Amino acid sequence: MHTTDIHVCDDIDPAFAALLEQGLNGFNDVAVGYGDRTPLAVVLSDAQTHQPIGGAVGRSSLGLLFLDLFYLPATLRGRGLGSEILRKFETEGQRRGCVSAVLYTISFQAPEFYKRHGWKVFGEIPCAPTGTSRIFLTKTL
Hints:
The chain is of the alpha+beta class and 141 residues long. The chain has 3 helices and 6 strands, in the order αβββαβαββ. It has one domain (38-140): Aminopeptidase, CATH 3.40.630. The protein has helices at 14-32, 81-95, 111-116; strands at 38-45, 52-61, 64-71, 100-106, 120-127, 132-140. The radius of gyration is 18 Å and the shape is globular.
């Protein structure tokens, strides 16, 4: 008989995370008959140093585009760069065959930005601090 232990921690070992990801991906691949998950990044770089300073990361999988992280330094906001990054992210998702996209943001972050770009709220969950919420959005591509 195989013995097991369960414990809770706040330090996630990358090898442990990879084990879970590989296991779940393998399960999903068997269930649907293929695996098509592909990372996606739109990188904003400093023109002089060529170092990344902002952008978006996510992935495409099973016809969905996931926007996981999006950051633009405050000094660069209001210039249309965020809109261009989002457009490029969505366009690449479409090129990959994604029919819908999904993301979540926090009420003090950028829900209105996404709404202006055609994203629709499909859920909202209160979180801390009081008056704040996680807002889940989707968009048909």
